[in-house]
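Lab notebook, bench 4. The sequencing result for the construct came back, and we need a structural model before the next group meeting so we can plan mutations. Quick request posted to the team channel:

Model the 3D structure of this chain.
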Amino acid sequence: MNQSLIEPAIQPVGDSGLMVRFGAAVDPDIHAQVLEADSAISAAGIEGVTELIPSFAALFVGYDPLQTDFETVSAAVRALGPMKSKERTSGQIWQVPVCYGDGLSPDLAEVAVRTGLSEEEVINAHLSGDYLLYMYGFAPGYAYLGGVPKEIQLPRKTAPVRDIPAGAVMIAGPQALVTTIKMPTGWWIIGQSPFQFLRPGEDNPFPLAVGDRVQFTRMSRDDFERAVGQGAKT
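Done. Here's the predicted structure in token form:
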């Protein structure tokens, strides 16, 4: 792992927040520094800080403008010094089953054509990926995973498709995601999973934490139907 440290850029966000930026790429080493900044700022107990939200390459720091201001919080963050990268193995590993084909992969054939691979080779490439949960965003429980193998990376579609159901396993560029609610998307849908990334009835509705890892596994259509029928959370 690259242990070089990046001096973050700190920018104001409105009158009640700031963004600590370590770069712009979807990169595990950069993200490790985002997580370390999250941990260090949380432990520092900076007066007035109300929330911390990590993303791919930046950390949002929210604060109460009645208690503090941008200059004070920014100075406190810089005073913490360089953010040393955490070991990437610290997160929990989750097994997420996927059913490919059988009417559940509307874009699998097109992904195969565009990448020059067979459908089975696309599936095997997807299963071989090492996926890291970088952030939540866009919709409840949308866990953005980096780690899609280069041979199946495609840009998003030119136009979104409406009414994509929950559980759709999608890829776009280096990212993968499993939908949690019916939504439009311009990502490529290559399978379906019964795994629930959003569990609103539980004390912790987001079982996976930023920094956790995902390994996709293959399941049959019969096992998929059985899991869905049993209301599987896996």
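The radius of gyration is 19 Å.
Will bring this to the meeting.
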